[in-house]
Backbone:
């Protein structure tokens, strides 16, 4: 359990980081727009970087990230809770090992393997993203619940809470900061890995990057990458805000 | 030892041949323990660590299920009732307090009433009442989170929370062990005051014999063999320890410690008519312990004390008589 994915940072870093990340993100976005507007683009570049194409690719990308992250939460959190219940604790270790293994496989390998085994398209990309991003959510849920002070659970049981009440009103609320940190990691992972979704014909910002590579157009490649970075920073910023406001008070 | 069909009417808690054997452990944690606790009584379990006192306490609210034996609460065999519902009727205070850090002080205190379906307004009124009772201003502390409280304040909230549903029984597991000595003494004093007012049946676990002697109406001393070596009043334990273990556990200075248990009024009541002739008395309350009276006398350089009697009269008592009362305690207690 050494690699708990907890990116809770110091208050100082958080308060400057709170405005630094979106500032960088907006600067990149503005720079890209200005470049496209004024640069001398050939017809292939102009087509690849047309506003419609960029908007469509970004929308696809965001869609992939949102859907896969929601699916990851819906699978990872309940599974994590289940694996910490009495009776399931013995299989918790093996399941965690399996999830770690899933993470160790290169993401493009997972994606291509799934595409070969099943089919291509949006949902296959989502499945691959979920497989890949499940570990941080699953592990942080489990660790978040396991690290709850036993004396609090004892106090809860002692005042007559059922096991379900202990889970709802003690274990889960106290695990929220770690679960949120896990979700944040999953989100960031998904923004990055979703660039590979283009290989299963699911679009996204990755298609701009591959266009740049395949057609040997350097500006297209760079702009695709920059947009991905800007999106990642923006998502991380939003996730940080979410973490800040969803974490229970008093902790 | 299973003959508890006819309990005395004021018995609140009755353990009947209770044993606990944990799996994978040599020897039982508690073996064949029987004890009877009256309604409104303050009983302290004291003993070295690992002697089964906490296990016994936790068997009463069935956080630990007994391997053998029966437990009766208020005349009802609770060995087979729903444990969660049972616990909502029993206050429970632990050493580490166990306040939920993500709930405010007021919400922590209102937890059990909420489980019992008490409405929001009634709950808030009850919370205010309880915080005031334990000496915390609800306007100041109610909205705070436990993190912002000192150890002593947290334990007051812990006591308020345990009292919230007005349970007849309170189980307390070393509740004052984690606070500093000064705060502990204050909590003990205030808790005694509270208990005189509330008259709960209390089972209190500690490893500190001084705390036990100070608080308990009766004290059960557990020995290493997970047995009760003696179950008696503090005075009886100090004057006639049942065996060498009890004697060693209580430690030296039993005679002097008795001074802290005997009250001035008990000395006065044994005095035949006529006061002692002393020159520089200091006034003390009849409820004061002899130790407190002596302290006052020594602090002020007096050679005796003046006690105001309930009928308004005054009587003078010499220091020597106060001291000798402790030596007489053997006779007084038997």
Residues:
């Amino acid at each position: 359990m050494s690699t708990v994915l907890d990116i809770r940072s110091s208050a100082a870093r958080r308060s400057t980081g709170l405005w630094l990340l979106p500032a960088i993100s907006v600067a990149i976005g503005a720079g890209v727009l200005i470049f496209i507007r004024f640069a001398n683009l050939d017809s292939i570049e102009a087509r690849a970087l047309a506003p419609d194409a960029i908007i469509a690719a970004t929308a696809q990308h965001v869609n992939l990230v949102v859907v896969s992250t929601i699916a990851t939460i819906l699978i990872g959190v309940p599974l994590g809770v289940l694996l910490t219940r009495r009776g399931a604790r013995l299989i918790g270790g093996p399941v965690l090992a399996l999830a770690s293994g899933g993470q160790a496989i290169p993401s493009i390998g997972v994606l291509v393997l799934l595409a070969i085994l099943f089919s291509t398209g949006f949902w296959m990309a989502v499945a691959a993203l979920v497989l890949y991003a499940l570990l941080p959510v699953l592990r942080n849920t489990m660790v978040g619940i396991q690290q709850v002070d036993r004396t609090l659970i004892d106090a809860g049981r002692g005042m007559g809470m059922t096991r379900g009440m202990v889970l709802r009103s003690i274990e889960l609320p106290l695990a929220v900061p770690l679960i949120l940190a896990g979700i944040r990691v999953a989100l960031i992972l998904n923004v990055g890995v979703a660039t590979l979704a283009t290989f299963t014909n699911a679009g996204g910002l990755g298609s701009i990057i591959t266009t740049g590579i395949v057609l040997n157009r350097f500006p297209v490649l760079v702009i695709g990458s920059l947009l991905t970075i800007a999106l990642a920073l923006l998502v991380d910023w939003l996730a940080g805000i979410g973490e800040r406001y969803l974490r229970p008070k008093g902790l | 030892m299973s003959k508890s069909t006819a309990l005395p009417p004021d018995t609140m808690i009755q353990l009947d041949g209770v044993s606990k054997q944990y799996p994978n452990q040599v020897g039982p944690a508690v073996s064949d323990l029987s004890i009877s606790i009256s309604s409104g009584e303050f009983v302290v379990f004291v003993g070295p660590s690992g002697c089964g006192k906490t296990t016994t306490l936790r068997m009463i609210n069935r956080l630990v299920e007994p391997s053998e034996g029966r437990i009766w609460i208020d005349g009802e065999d609770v060995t087979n009732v729903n444990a969660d519902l049972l616990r909502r009727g029993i206050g429970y205070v632990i050493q580490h307090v166990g306040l939920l850090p993500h709930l405010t002080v007021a919400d922590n205190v209102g937890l059990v009433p909420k489980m019992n379906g008490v409405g929001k307004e009634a709950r808030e009124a009850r919370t205010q009442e309880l915080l005031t009772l334990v000496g915390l201003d609800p306007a100041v502390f109610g909205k705070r989170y436990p993190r912002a409280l000192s150890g002593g304040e947290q334990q007051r909230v812990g006591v308020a929370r345990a009292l919230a549903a007005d349970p007849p029984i309170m189980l307390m597991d070393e509740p004052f062990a984690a606070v500093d000595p000064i705060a502990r003494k204050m909590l003990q004093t205030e808790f005694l005051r509270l208990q005189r007012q509330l008259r709960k049946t209390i089972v209190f676990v500690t490893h500190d014999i001084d705390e036990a002697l100070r608080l308990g109406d009766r004290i059960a001393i557990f020995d290493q063999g997970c047995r009760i070596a003696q179950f008696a009043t503090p005075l009886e334990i100090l004057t006639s320890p049942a065996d060498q273990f009890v004697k060693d556990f209580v430690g030296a200075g039993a005679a002097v410690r008795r001074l802290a248990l005997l009250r001035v009024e008990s000395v006065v009541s044994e005095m035949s008519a006529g006061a002692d002739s002393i020159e520089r008395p200091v006034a003390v309350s009849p409820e004061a312990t002899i130790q407190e009276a002596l302290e006052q006398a020594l602090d002020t350089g007096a050679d005796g004390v003046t006690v105001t009697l309930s009928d308004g009269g005054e009587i003078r008592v010499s220091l020597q008589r106060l001291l000798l009362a402790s030596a007489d305690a053997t006779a007084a207690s038997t």
About this structure: The two ends of chain B are 27 Å apart (CA to CA). The first strand of chain B starts at residue 11 and ends at 20. Chain B touches chain A at residues 61, 63, 84-89, 92, 94, 96-104, 111-112, 115, 145-147, 161-162, 171 (CB under 8 Å). The CA atoms of residues 159 and 279 of chain B lie 47 Å apart.
